[in-house]
Amino acid sequence: MDTENHSEKVEKIVEEEDGGDLVRSFKTNNHEVNDEQKKVSLMRTFVQTQDPTSKDVDDLTLRRFLRARDLDIEKGSALFLKHVKWRRSFVPNGFISESEVAHDIAHNKVFMQGYDKSGQPILVIYGAKHFPNKVKGGIEEFRRFVVYCLDKLSAKIPTGQEKFFIVADLEGWGYYSNCDIRGYLAALSVLQDNYPERLAKFYLIHVPSVFMAAWKLIYPFIDNNTKKKFVFVDDKSLKSTLLEEISEDQLPEVYGGKLPLLPIEES
Questions:
Q1: Is the pTM of this model over 0.70?
Q2: Which of 68, 118, 123, 218 would suit a FRET pair with 29, their CA atoms being 20 to 30 Å apart?
Q3: 199-214 pLDDT, tens per residue?
Q4: 10 Å Cβ neighbour count for 121?
């Protein structure tokens, strides 16, 4: 079913719920409302019929889920409603505490690092400090850690911005010691399904050739909207490439900038 048919289907559901008032208002004031705004409003009415708690969510959040599905209201609504259900179950207290992710915090592998030139917060990840948690329930703790980090990063997004910038430093990454395909796919799923349209860019730096074997396994699971945001940065142009996006006073000292590394739990 194409996007237009999906939209018509949702419009019919909304008309049944509100007597057609919302849809009629768009048709009579079409010059005042663009297509995306119309779809966000229709999506809001629709998701509230499915989950009344959706009324507390702002339009920008709904718009991100809608954009993640190429403005298809039915698909965007399904993604959002799945997220709401997941969030209620996975983060029942509204946040992940440090005690719930102690294993991953102890590795000192994630840092919150200032803002890029667009005003988007930056996260730096050290891949060689990540070790698969092989104990029972270890993958669930890692998922919690991903949510812990992404929630902290999202909380740093200033008004007027919607995205964040991630740098993954893979210097010293080893296939046998650090490779964690299950963990990487779990993190990717959390990002794509629950933080859609939050990622501005994902730079991979100091990438060893052995990492490409893992990348070939991960890449097929990245959706098309996200694939273009991953950028492999050549070592020879690392500092200049980073400085194109990040001012020197916001760039970590380890990359020639002036900002000390700040562990995620201290941010």
A1: yes
A2: 68
A3: 999 999 999 999 999 9
A4: 24
